[in-house]
Amino acid sequence: MILGNLNDINLKNDIPEQIWNALKFVRDNDLNKLDDGRYNIDGDNLFINVMTVDSVSKDSKSCELHRNYADIQILIEGEELMEYATSREEFLPVTEYDATNDFQSINPTGGVSTLILKPNMFAVFYPNEPHKPTCFINEIKTIRKAVLKVHTNFLQKLI
């Protein structure tokens, strides 16, 4: 997991080059001006989903896990609490893995940490890193965010 801010002038030096390169679309486009929806950057290898959603209670959902994609969760407006598990191996499945959507709901059995995102902050979750995004801090709020989906093939191509 990587936590960063898009406005950090040292960002290029502080994150892996392949993540910096994947963020090119975000650096070249004002996310505030994009409508909600999916934007293909490199087909299914690299795309971004922009969304406006209401945050939910962290107790009302499970963590998500992806095997083939890294998630770069970028907050555009509002505030967002996320949980993530520091141990990839210790979890109880809630659902079976859905290969079509590269998604599985799980409950970590330990090592859960919390982070709070403000606008222009992002969190990178590599494949198999459990995370629980879109949770509220004190009350339900509408947030605007983008999720950059980076296929492992694309990550390897960037190395």
UniProtKB/TrEMBL annotation:
GO cellular component: cytosol
PANTHER family assigned: EVOLVED BETA-GALACTOSIDASE SUBUNIT BETA, N-ACETYLNEURAMINATE ANOMERASE NANQ
Name of the molecule in the record: DUF386 domain-containing protein
Gene source species: Vibrio sinensis
